[in-house]
UniProtKB/TrEMBL annotation:
Family from the record: Belongs to the sulfur carrier protein TusA family.
Pfam families hit by this protein: TusA
InterPro entries referenced in this protein's UniProt entry, alphabetically: TusA-like, TusA-like_sf
Gene3D superfamilies in UniProt: TusA-like domain
Stated name of the protein: Putative sulfur carrier protein AF_0554
Residue span, UPF0033 domain: 18-42
Species annotation: Candidatus Hydrogenisulfobacillus filiaventi
PANTHER family xref list: SULFUR CARRIER PROTEIN MJ0990-RELATED, SULFUR CARRIER PROTEIN YEDF-RELATED
Length: 88
């Protein structure tokens, strides 16, 4: 499933959900990365977040650093971000 597309991530049910709404930097990113590091390779985490800098910059940056495919959908004042943990 390497190279997961945005559509595949959004259609797939997440293996776990992390709700960090109401939290500000650096906590959404710290909690998200900690959770993903504990998850098995190939699983998908859905993050519910309402802090724009974390949703638009910090979490995508972490995904790029680890080469984790992700898809983000803005829903009102919050985002739903799905990340698939890849091999490392």
């Amino acid at each position: 499933m390497e190279g997961t597309s945005r559509e595949e991530l959004l259609e797939r049910e997440p293996d776990d959900i992390l709700d960090v709404r109401g939290e500000t930097c650096p906590f959404p990113a710290l909690h998200s990365q900690k959770k993903l590091m504990r998850m098995p390779v190939g699983t998908v985490l859905e993050i519910l977040i309402d802090h724009p800098p974390s949703a638009e910059e910090t979490i995508p940056g972490i995904c790029a650093q680890h080469n984790w495919p992700y898809a983000s959908v803005k829903e009102g004042d919050s985002w739903r971000i799905r990340i698939r943990k890849t091999g490392r």
